[in-house]
Amino acid sequence: MPAHEFESDTTTDPLAHERAHLAASRAALRAMREDAQALDISDVTANWVNAAVLQAQIDERIKSLADLSHTPLFFGRLDYLHVVGAEEAEGAQGEQFYIGRRHVHDAVGDPMVIDWRAPVSQPFYRASRKDPLDVGRRRRFGYTGGDLTAYEDEHLTDPAEAEQTSKLLQAEIERPRVGPMRDIVATIQPEQDEIVRSELGGTVCVQGGPGTGKTAVGLHRVAYLLYAHRERLARTGTLVVGPNRSFLHYIEQVLPALGELEVKQATVEDLVGAQVEVRGTDEARAAVVKGDARMAEVLRRALRSHVTLPTQPVMVVRGSRRWRVPAYEIEEMVQELLARDMRYGAAHEALPQRIAHAVLVRMEEAGEAPDDRVQNAVARNPAVKAAVKAVWPAVEPAKLVLRLLADPEFLAAHAEGLLTEDEQKAILWVKPARSVKSAKWSAADAVLIDEASDLVARTHSLGHVVIDEAQDLSPMQYRAVGRRCSTGSATVLGDLAQGTTPWSTQNWEQALHHLGKADAVVEELTAGFRVPRDVIAYASRLLPVISPGLTAVESVRESPGSLSVREVAGADALDAAVIAACEEALTHEGSTGLIAADARVPALADALTAAGYPYLSPGQETTADSRLTLVPASLAKGLEYDYVVLDEPAAVVDGEPDERTGLRRLYVALTRAVSGLAVLHSAPLPRELG
Predict the structure, then answer these.
(1) In terms of CB atoms within 10 Å, which of 190, 304, 390, 442 comes out highest?
(2) Would you say the pTM of this structure is higher than 0.70?
């Protein structure tokens, strides 16, 4: 499939025709935006509330119709053999559709560009010579800075045309990375498209090694679901959960580039941190125990321990009459509520109504005719309120967790048979805090409080949640995220080999169980499109140790000379050698990431400054003038750079609490490069690298 470069702008030149269609499409998009801006809602809204809501919707519509000059409106074309949806007829003329990031129509409503998510666009990703899906020709377009410069054709039904690898597709995959993460809508592969277009009702877990596109697939699935189920998800909401703020900043432009502006992004800490301020940290041992799923049962027991069976009757006085509800009858109510395993807070609200109903029954038996207002009044009676406070008192989640972590006897009573004595000691505070505000809560503590909050009152559920780098979540964190999609679905993205927390996921079945999605479908992506073959093969030497049995990524990209491993004589010379490697990397187009053990970052920062090289921190956007980022190894996950300089692999391994976690951290660092990796070391390399 030869790529046709721009030659001459003549009327018979196909590329000139395509460029004219691009210009017309951009004009049509501008007209669509101007129409939205010109809408007058002054006479169609009943009140200011309706006007505000409608205006907000119009504003979002205007934003979604923005023409991004650096982003082509369409990247492909499908020439169907027959009219789509019509019965095949001999000699029937087929239809032609341009496939792009969003729908564009002309002044009379005829489509000029079809949204990539539409059913008619699906063959662009799925059609093959074996199954052409009624497509005679698939055309791909090449762009430079938003200008259409080339095209490439596949004649899927022509047996005389040899099958070849698309050069334009390869060029798009390898395009230099400057700025935030891009969408991959022009390069989605068939196995990725199947995941992207999977139904809303089901949860999908994607195991994907470095460079397989799992993050992009997850984001594009959100965009597809919003297209296919927009009304439903507009009501229930969507959320992307990432490992840290740097990562979220890196991916935040993908969905807006596809016209989707309503998806919220957060870290797990954002989700659970509303009730307390996180100011403390846990030792690894304590964090592992606090993140264990057994803590959910400890919390449930501790919360239920506040319920005590009544020993006194309730006497309600109304006017000159007294109504008595005996203790045994109230006990029956309490036992029934316990047996139903309701949320603690819901039961706390239900009990006074149960007691009031018992009083109303007695009133009716005495010939009175009470109504609902009387029942509500009885439920608010001081005697009833006092009885409920004694039997089923209100509990504040943060205070419950505070007591568990500060009171050894209280913890022991509710952790019996669940946590060992050593595990209990690991999570108890050495210096117990006096109050919720004075406590130095850790991130794991905030998750416990979130669990307790859900035991008291149900957490609001969203329609769909995407969890990226999910292998690093603890069981309790999975539960926290799962609560946010208990009535919805999820897309779980991760790589078991990149688990770098002490509590990282050992297998997806356990993780999905904790998430509350045990019936999820697990898909594995093994074809690599980002990391060069030599680089991923080098990093994969670690797999037998860090994740035995996991399938290694097979990169489709051959890039000779992409890997360089250099030993530097003496630690004193390492900084200078690293700076020289960065200088060499910056001679190439695209971004450069200098990745180092966290403890090495200050020294390298000083060395870069002394050498006159400005550098960015992870999450800061690279530009044409600022292309070097200094990356602590702990923040490298999920990021990618055209060229990576990796400083002292042994230091990356030694920076973790155990060797396996250190090797996993090294695996992450080794697989961030898109075009080239230079490894520099003065200490011996880990033996697993050979």
Answers:
(1) 442
(2) yes
